[in-house]
Write a structure and sequence with these properties.
The chain has one domain. Helices cover 28% and strands 39% of the residues. It contains four helices and nine strands. The radius of gyration is 17 Å and the shape is globular. The chain starts with a strand and ends with a strand.
Length: 158
């Protein structure tokens, strides 16, 4: 797990990019919590109804993308006072986790905006229990490379 924060001089720019640009659009969102006078919670669960002519309808669970939720979150923040806190649980698309590591079940990028700072932590879920840390290391390295590719300046948090 890595814990990093966006360079404090770039917090406003990062939040603008997060809410207006496609910087994290490819990630799925497990949940969003915002405190803007009141607490607002958005569940990222997406119910997909599959119709099969021979069987009853089957429901599959998935998660919505940041691309789909971003306009809603932006509208909520734009219409209210400056948020006191925003928490977003991003996850790597489920069908792509095996590209990072064969034992990956889920890969998370948790973001917290509070007190004019943005902090990220990574987390992983394994398919099969293992004490070795290559999954964590692979995900952390991918996230660091992603931040560099997207020109997001981050600093290791102590």
């Amino acid at each position: 797990m890595i814990a990093v924060h966006v360079d404090t001089t770039g917090t406003k720019e990062f939040m603008n990019r997060l809410l207006k640009d496609d910087v994290l659009d490819t990630f799925e969102v497990r949940g969003v919590e915002m405190t803007i006078g009141t607490r607002i919670s958005i569940d990222g669960n997406l119910i997909i109804q599959k119709e099969n002519l021979d069987e009853s309808p089957e429901k599959q669970q998935g998660y919505t993308t940041w691309e789909a939720l971003r306009p809603l979150v932006f509208a909520i923040i734009k219409t209210g006072a400056k948020p006191k806190q925003v928490k977003i649980i991003f996850s790597f698309k489920t069908e792509n986790v095996k590209d990072i590591h064969p034992n990956a079940a889920a890969l998370f990028l948790n973001m917290v905006y509070e007190n004019d700072t943005v902090n990220f932590t990574t987390a992983t879920a394994q398919k099969d229990f293992s004490l070795e840390k290559s999954l964590d290391d692979s995900w952390d390295e991918w996230v660091r490379s992603f931040f560099i590719m997207k020109n997001i300046s981050v600093i290791d948090r102590e």
